[in-house]
Design brief:
The chain is an alpha+beta fold. The chain contains three helices and four strands, in the order E-H-E-H-E-E-H. The chain is 39% helix and 22% strand.
Length: 72
Amino acid sequence: MSLMLLSSPGCHLCDQAEEIVDHVGVSFEVVDISLNVDLVRLYGVRIPVLKRSDGAELGWPFDVLDVERFTA
């Protein structure tokens, strides 16, 4: 299962989310939504969002336990 953390530069909540996901120890890719107009439209006011390869999403706010459950 691959994970993407939908994020944007200067987003302090995204920084917090990245720390949480990193702490859980799962592999993930940070995706900068600001580089894609469609992603900005979909996620501009929702980031950070953790997204699995099956399309499931975990929206902010989330904590370590939420990420562990989401990735189990």
